[in-house]
C-alpha cells in the first residue's frame, strides 16, 4: 500500500465543502485524486474552529441581504452538518502530535501551524493549499489544481508494500488515542488504572465470556493459565509442534514437559487423531504408539498428562469439539492459545471462549494489537478467574502486601489499555477488511495448482492474522517476489521439536512429518485491514508471473 498523507488547508477545505463554483472544481478534483490514490486525508484540529466559521460565512454569502438573521441561523446549522459529515471521511490531526504553540511565534501562524502538522506525520505528506504564505515556502505544499493535473509518477517499487501496516489504523483513530493517553498522563495511574477494568469489561462483552484478566503479554497469559492449574514437574502438557516458542516455553518454565503433537496438513492446527495417540502413548509410556520426549532414567521417569494447550494458528481456531471431547475423556484441562485469533469464530462461538481458559496477545502485529506487549486471559470459571487475578499481581490476597500464593508480576500497563480501547471500537470493521483481503487472495490464487492456499472449514471464521500459502519451491518463490518488491515472511521455519531449546527432549527429524514438511514450504503474504485492492491484484500478478517462471526452470539437479 502506498503510504501517503494529504493535509487540507482551510482555504481548500472551504471551497470543497461550500461547493463554490467554479473555484471548487480544482479542490474537488484534488480531493478525489487523493482518495483514488488511497491517501490518508487530514484536517488539523487547531484549524477546525476557523474552518467552521469560514464555512458559515461562505454559505451565508450565497443568500440575499434580506432576512439575514434567519439566513445566518440556517447557514450555521448547515455548516455544522456539512462539517460533521466530512469529518467521517477524513482524519483529524490533534495538536498532541506537535508543539502547536510554536506556530504563534511566526508572522504567519496559520501557515506555520500547517507545516508543523506536516512535520508530525513522519511518512510522505503533501499539503493542498492556495495560501501564498505556504505556496513556494515548502516543497510539500501543492496547489490543488497542480495536484489534480499531474500524472501519477510514483512506482510500486519506489513505495514498497509493507508486510503488515501498523500505522494506517493509528491514523484513523489518532485523536481518540491521544485523548486516552493524555487522560492516563493526567491521572497518573500508570499501573492498573481504570482503563484496565474498562478494557476487561469490553473484552468480556465482545467474546461473551464472563471473566477477563488483562496482563502484560500473550506469553504471560499462557503462563498464568498453566499456573492456575498448578502445572509443575512431572506433568505433561500436550501441544502443537508448529507454533511460536512461547506456547511450549511456558510449559518448560514451570518444570513440566511439553509433549509435541503433529498438525493437520490443511489447517496447520493440532491434529485430533495425533492428539489421541500422543495421550495414549503417554499413559502407556509407549514410544511405539507415538513419539514421546525422552525422560531421565529412574522410577519417577513417567509422563502424567495433565492438560492440552491448543493453538489457533494464523487466526483459525482448531477443532475444539474434538479436542474438548478428548480432554474430557482423559480428565485433562484445555487452554486455548488464541494469540493470533482474537476475533475468530468456531461454530458460532468466539475465540478465547472455546476452552476452559482462553489466552490472547495484544502484540502490535496481532489482529487487535497495542503499542507494546499486552495480553488477556478469558474464563467462565469464577474460581479460576480469582486465582489468575491473584497470580497476576505476585499472588496478592486482600491487598498487595497480603500474598496468599506464589505469583508473578504480569500486570498490563494502563497506557496499553488506553490504546486498545479505541482500537477495539474499530476492530469489527478491521476484521471485515481482513476477510476482504483473504477472500480476494483466494479468488486470485485458487487457479495455481502448485500452491496450497489457506483452508477455512465450514462453521469456522478466521481472524486472518496471517495469510500463508505452501509451495514446494518456497525459497525460490520468496527470493523472486522480494526482487519484485513483494514482502513475505516465513512462519515458522523450524518446528519446536527441532529447536535447540528443546533438544533435551530427544525428538528427532521425522517424528512429526507434516509439521516438518510445512515448515519447508510455508510462505506468508502481506495482509492487514488497509491493504488496497490494487495492491492485492499487483501481489497476485507478481506471484503468478513468478510461478510461471519457476515452472519453466526446474530446480538445479533435476
Characterization of this structure:
The chain has 558 residues and is of the alpha/beta class. Among the domains are: 4-154, 3-Layer(aba) Sandwich (Rossmann fold); 430-552, Aspartate Aminotransferase, domain 1, CATH 3.90.1150. 41% of the residues lie in helices and 13% in strands. The chain contains 18 helices and 17 strands. The protein has helices at residues 10-18, 24-36, 48-60, 68-87, 109-120, 144-149, 168-172, 174-187, 194-207, 218-228, 246-253, 272-284, 320-330, 382-392, 414-445, 474-483, 513-521, 533-552; strands spanning 4-8, 40-44, 91-93, 124-128, 141-142, 211-215, 235-240, 257-261, 304-311, 333-337, 345-346, 349-350, 357-361, 375-379, 460-461, 467-470, 522-525. It has a 7-stranded mixed sheet, sandwiched between helices. A 5-stranded parallel sheet has the order 3-2-1-4-5, sandwiched between helices. Strand 9, helix 13 and strand 10 (333-337) form a beta-alpha-beta unit. Helix 1 packs across helix 3 (48-60), helix 10 (218-228) packs across helix 11 and helix 12 (272-284) packs parallel to helix 13 (320-330). The radius of gyration is 28 Å and the shape is globular. Mean pLDDT is 90; it is low at 153-158.
Amino acid at each position: 500500500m502506498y503510504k501517503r498523507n494529504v493535509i487540507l488547508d482551510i482555504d481548500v477545505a472551504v471551497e470543497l465543502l461550500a461547493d463554490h463554483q467554479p473555484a471548487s472544481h480544482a479542490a474537488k478534483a484534488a480531493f478525489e485524486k487523493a482518495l483514488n490514490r488511497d491517501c490518508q486525508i487530514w484536517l488539523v484540529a487547531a484549524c477546525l474552529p476557523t474552518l467552521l466559521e469560514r464555512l458559515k460565512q461562505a454559505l451565508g454569502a450565497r443568500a440575499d441581504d434580506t432576512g439575514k438573521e434567519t439566513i445566518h441561523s440556517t447557514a450555521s446549522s448547515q455548516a455544522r452538518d456539512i462539517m460533521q459529515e466530512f469529518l467521517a471521511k477524513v482524519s483529524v490531526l490533534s495538536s498532541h502530535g506537535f508543539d502547536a504553540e510554536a506556530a504563534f511565534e511566526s508572522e504567519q501562524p496559520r501557515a506555520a501551524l500547517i507545516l508543523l502538522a506536516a512535520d508530525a506525520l513522519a511518512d510522505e505528506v503533501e499539503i493542498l493549499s492556495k495560501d501564498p504564505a505556504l505556496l513556494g515556502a515548502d516543497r510539500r505544499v501543492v496547489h490543488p489544481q497542480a495536484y489534480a493535473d499531474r500524472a501519477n509518477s510514483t512506482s510500486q517499487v519506489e513505495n514498497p508494500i509493507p508486510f503488515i501496516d501498523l500505522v494506517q489504523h493509528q491514523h484513523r483513530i489518532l485523536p481518540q488515542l491521544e485523548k486516552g493517553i493524555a487522560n492516563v498522563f493526567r491521572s497518573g495511574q500508570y499501573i492498573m488504572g481504570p482503563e484496565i477494568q474498562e478494557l476487561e469489561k469490553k473484552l468480556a462483552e465482545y467474546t461473551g465470556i464472563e471473566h477477563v484478566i488483562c496482563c502484560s503479554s500473550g506469553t504471560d497469559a499462557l503462563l498464568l493459565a498453566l499456573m492456575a492449574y498448578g502445572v509443575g514437574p512431572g506433568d505433561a502438557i500436550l501441544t502443537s509442534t508448529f507454533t511460536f516458542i512461547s506456547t511450549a516455553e511456558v510449559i518448560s518454565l514451570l518444570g513440566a514437559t511439553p509433549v509435541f503433537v503433529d498438525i493437520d496438513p490443511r489447517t496447520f492446527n493440532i491434529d485430533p487423531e495425533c492428539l489421541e495417540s500422543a495421550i495414549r502413548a503417554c499413559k502407556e509410556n509407549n514410544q511405539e504408539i507415538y513419539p514421546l520426549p525422552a525422560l531421565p532414567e529412574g522410577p519417577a521417569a513417567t509422563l502424567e498428562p495433565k492438560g492440552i494447550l491448543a493453538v489457533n494458528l494464523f487466526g483459525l481456531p482448531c477443532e475444539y469439539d474434538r479436542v474438548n471431547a478428548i480432554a474430557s475423556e482423559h480428565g485433562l484441562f484445555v487452554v486455548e492459545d488464541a494469540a493470533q485469533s482474537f476475533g475468530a469464530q468456531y461454530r458460532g462461538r468466539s475465540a478465547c471462549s472455546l476452552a476452559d481458559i482462553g489466552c490472547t496477545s495484544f502484540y502490535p502485529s496481532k489482529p487487535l494489537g497495542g503499542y507494546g506487549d499486552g495480553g488477556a486471559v478469558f474464563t467462565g470459571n469464577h474460581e479460576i478467574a480469582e486465582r489468575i487475578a491473584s497470580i497476576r499481581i505476585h499472588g496478592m490476597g486482600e491487598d498487595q502486601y497480603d500474598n496468599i500464593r506464589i505469583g508473578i508480576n504480569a500486570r498490563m500497563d494502563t497506557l496499553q489499555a488506553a490504546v486498545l480501547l479505541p482500537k477495539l471500537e474499530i476492530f469489527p470493521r478491521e476484521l471485515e477488511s481482513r476477510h476482504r483481503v483473504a477472500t480476494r487472495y483466494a479468488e486470485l490464487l485458487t487457479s495455481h495448482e502448485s500452491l496450497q492456499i489457506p483452508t477455512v472449514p465450514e462453521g469456522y471464521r478466521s481472524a486472518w492474522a496471517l495469510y500463508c500459502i505452501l509451495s514446494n519451491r518456497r525459497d525460490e518463490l520468496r527470493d523472486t517476489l522480494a526482487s519484485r518488491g513483494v514482502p513475505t515472511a516465513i512462519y515458522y521455519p523450524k518446528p519446536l521439536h527441532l529447536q535447540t531449546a528443546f533438544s533435551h527432549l530427544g525428538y528427532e527429524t521425522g517424528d512429526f512429518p507434516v509439521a516438518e514438511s510445512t515448515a519447508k514450504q510455508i510462505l506468508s503474504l502481506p495482509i492487514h485491514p488497509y491493504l488496497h485492492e490494487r495492491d492485492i491484484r499487483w501481489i497476485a500478478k507478481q506471484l503468478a508471473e513468478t510461478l510461471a517462471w519457476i515452472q519453466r526452470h526446474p530446480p538445479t539437479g533435476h
